[in-house]
Specification:
Largest sheet: 5 strands, mixed
CATH class: Alpha Beta
Radius of gyration: 16 Å
Oligomer: single chain
Number of domains: 1
Structural class: alpha+beta
CATH topology: 60s Ribosomal Protein L30, Chain: A
């Protein structure tokens, strides 16, 4: 039975919407359509099929250097925190499934420390591997940004690649 404020489409209650800003994560016991836009940032979508519940993060940099507060702006903070919040809702770590997006090279000639997208992708793959969370799908790297909508109730992701925005290096 739909509640007050629920949007009903075709006889079905459409999940609530949430926009995920960079450096944040989202976990909620009710299904949501979570939208975010990625360049060199990476989003990890985790879903637990038996619980039918998921969450997503959007991190900007791979590693927190130990200065200031550990926030989900950093992948090595965002990924474990996402797992922790999902398990607090009742998700079982061994049933978690991941989908990985982003990590574009937004500047031509980005190498070494400037290759933030590549470093974000590598960190996500390493951490998910260490946590024994399988990556079921990934759309990472390249030179195009991405917009994605994650359905936290089904684990489905709608993805749109943005046209090439890579700019020449100075």
């Amino acid at each position: 039975m739909p509640g007050a404020g629920d949007r009903v489409v075709g006889g079905l209650v459409e999940p609530k919407s949430h926009y995920l800003y960079p450096g944040a994560l989202f976990v909620h016991p009710e299904p949501h359509l979570v939208t975010t836009v990625l360049g060199s940032c990476v989003a990890v979508c985790l879903w637990e099929p038996q619980l039918a519940c998921g969450g997503i993060n959007h991190f900007l940099l791979p590693l927190w250097n130990g200065e200031g507060l550990p926030t989900p702006r950093y992948g090595n903070v965002a990924i474990p925190l996402l797992v922790e919040q999902l398990t607090a809702l009742g998700a079982r770590r061994e049933r978690l499934q991941a989908k990985l997006f982003g990590g574009a090279s937004m500047w031509q000639g980005s190498e070494g420390l400037l290759a933030v997208g590549e470093r974000n992708i590598a960190l996500a793959r390493t951490q998910l591997g260490e946590l024994h969370v399988p990556i079921l799908a990934a759309d990472v790297g390249g030179t195009m940004g991405r917009k994605l909508v994650f359905n936290s109730g089904t684990g489905e992701v709608l993805l749109r690649r943005n046209r090439n925005q890579a700019r020449p290096a100075d």
